[in-house]
Amino acid sequence: MGISKTDIGTTTISIIATLVVWELLTRIFHIPGFILPAPSAIFVEAVTRYPLYLYHSWITFYEMVVGFLLAAAVGVFLAVVIVYSRIIRNMIYPQIVVLQIVPKVAIAPLLLIWAGYGLTSKVLLALLVSFFPIVVNMVTGLVAIEEELLDLCRILHSGRWQEFSKVRLPNALPYLFSSLKVASTLSVIGAVIGEFVGGNEGLGHLIIIANTSCGLRCRSSRCSACRYLDFCSMASSSWPSASACRGKSGNRHRDERCRWNDGSSPYSRRAKILCAGIGP
After folding, report:
1. How many domains are there within the chain?
2. pLDDT tens digits for 263-275?
3. For 86-168, where are the alpha helices, taking DSSP H only?
4. 41, 87, 96, 259: which one has the fewest Cβ atoms less than 10 Å from its Cβ?
């Protein structure tokens, strides 16, 4: 089923209408910016500091893409192994289900200890979050075969490879692509969670800086720009963003709005740099 121009137009109009209603509500009811910033304020913030957002969005995008590709490769391989080996299925499949139940926030600190604070731990977390739907859907597609087709393969004395390539794999492709759509968004969540826990770059890291180092009025539009672009990245799986804060007047005013600690926090120095030196 293709996408027509009507579908694209309807989607575009609905998005524009939502933004217009959002903007009008914030202006008519005078909603404070730290509660619900207007889309115009978020847009101005994103445009004003686009080098910052582009850089850290690229970090999160890289982690998401690498984790997603690894999840696709590992998920397809495990699905094939599970379908063709009863012993391995009984050994691996319950563990995969248990691993999916465990909260990923609880696993993230262990990955940081094992793999360090670099990109590797975030890629591994994105892999763990996104590979489960690929495994489950791929197994379903490889198993959901009509018995008549399998009987035909036996009558024609087809080998395992011919049965897989001619019957099972084509039947599993719709299931696979459906799971890839889900996994592409989950990989963004995994990468951001890793940055929340122990990142020094990327979208999650800048959100933590804004949340822990600045007052609400100082960071409202910044955090909203970050989270809005994060939502867009999950929808398109291609464009996450981040946030920072900066006082608007002199040093005394900036010190009142941003409560820095004595420098012991790992985020303190970088947050000071973001708050004092970025933007107009």
Report:
1. 1
2. 444 444 444 444 4
3. 86-101, 104-115, 119-143, 147-155, 160-163
4. 87
- Kindly tell me if the per-residue pLDDT of 187 is higher than 90: yes
How is residue 4 written in tokens? 């027509």
Segment 26-52, tens digit of pLDDT: 999 999 877 888 999 989 988 998 888
As a dihedral over the C-alpha atoms of residue 188, residue 229, residue 206, residue 132, rounded to 10 degrees, the angle is: -10
Residue 15 in any domain: the answer is no
Q: What is the distance between the alpha carbons of residues 88 and 249, in angstroms, rounded to a whole number? A: 64
* pLDDT(251) > 70: no
**pLDDT tens digits, one per residue of 110-143:** 888 898 888 899 999 999 999 999 999 999 999 9
CATH number of the domain within which 87 lies: 1.10.3720.10
Please, what's the largest Cα pairwise distance for the chain? 85
The yes-or-no verdict on residue 216 having pLDDT over 50 is: no
Q: What are 81's two structure tokens? A: 């192994």
- For 167, the domain range is 58-198
Cβ atoms of residues 126 and 191 within 8 Å: yes
Determine, yes or no, domain membership for 224. no
Name 127's Cβ contacts closer than 8 Å, sequence gap at least 6.
Answer: 67, 70, 71, 74, 187, 190
Q: Is residue 188 part of a domain?
A: yes
Q: Is residue 172 part of a domain?
A: yes
